[in-house]
Design brief:
alpha+beta; 5-stranded antiparallel sheet; 5 strands; 6 helices; about 55% helix
Length: about 220
C-alpha cells in the first residue's frame, strides 16, 4: 500500500468516526438537555425546601456536622409533582377559581409585576390553557418570494393596529423557546390543514429535522 492509499484510508476512517460522533450527538443531545433541565428544576426545589421546612418544622430537619440542614434526596421531586397534581385537581373548584381570579387580578394591576406576569401567563395559555393560540399552523411568506416559514396564527386580524386584511403570525425559532411575531397580509399565509399544530411546532423547533410525513402517517 502506497502513501497516497494509506492517506485516503485514514481520511475515510476519520470521516466515518466523525459521522458516528455526529449521529451519537443527535441521539444523546435532546435526551441530555431534557434530563439536565428536569434535574436542575428538582435540585433547585431540593435546595430551598429544607429551609422552608425548618421554618415550620424545626425539629423535623436535622443538621450535619457543619451546621447545615440535611437535604432529603427526592423530596423536591415528590413535592413538585404533588403540588402540580393538586393544583390541576382543584383548579376547577369554585372557591379555588375565585382565589386564583383574585390573585390574577392583583398581579395584573400591580405596576412592574404586571408586565412580567401577563407576558408569562399569556405565553403558557397560548400553549396549553383555555386560550390556546398555537393551534393554527401555517406557512408564512415574510422574507422573499417563494421563501416560507412555519408559524402559527395568533390573531385573525390586525384591526387594533389599524391594518386591514392582515393577520398576526408567530414564527418559532429552531432549537430555542423564542420566536418572532409578524403582521402580514392574508395572501402571504397558507393554512396547513394536513398536519397538526404539535407536528408543525416540532418541525419548526427541530430545524426541519422531524419527518412530518412519517408522523402524519402514524
Amino acid at each position: 500500500m502506497n502513501k497516497k492509499s494509506a492517506k485516503l484510508g485514514l481520511r475515510a476512517i476519520f470521516k466515518k468516526i466523525l459521522q458516528y460522533f455526529l449521529q451519537g450527538l443527535v441521539v444523546l443531545a435532546p435526551i441530555g438537555i431534557t434530563i439536565w433541565v428536569v434535574l436542575a428544576l428538582f435540585n433547585f426545589v431540593d435546595d430551598i425546601l429544607p429551609n422552608i421546612l425548618h421554618v415550620f418544622l424545626p425539629d423535623f430537619m436535622q443538621k450535619d456536622g457543619n451546621g447545615n440542614l440535611k437535604k432529603i434526596p427526592g423530596l423536591g421531586f415528590i413535592v413538585v409533582i404533588v403540588i402540580v397534581l393538586l393544583v390541576g385537581r382543584v383548579s376547577s373548584s369554585f372557591i379555588f377559581s375565585k382565589l386564583v381570579n383574585a390573585l390574577d387580578s392583583f398581579l395584573e394591576n400591580t405596576p412592574g409585576v404586571k408586565f412580567i406576569y401577563s407576558s408569562v401567563k399569556d405565553f403558557f395559555e397560548a400553549f396549553a390553557g383555555n386560550k390556546k393560540k398555537f393551534d393554527k399552523p401555517v406557512l408564512v411568506n415574510v422574507d422573499a418570494t417563494n421563501v416560507w416559514r412555519v408559524g402559527f396564527i395568533t390573531q385573525k386580524n390586525a384591526d387594533h393596529f389599524e391594518i386591514i386584511d392582515h393577520v398576526v403570525v408567530y414564527v418559532p425559532h429552531s432549537y430555542a423557546i423564542s420566536g418572532i411575531t409578524y403582521i402580514v397580509p392574508r395572501q402571504n399565509v397558507r393554512i396547513l390543514n394536513n398536519i397538526t399544530a404539535s407536528e408543525a411546532m416540532k418541525f419548526a423547533v427541530s430545524g426541519g429535522v422531524t419527518d412530518v410525513g412519517d408522523q402524519s402517517a402514524s
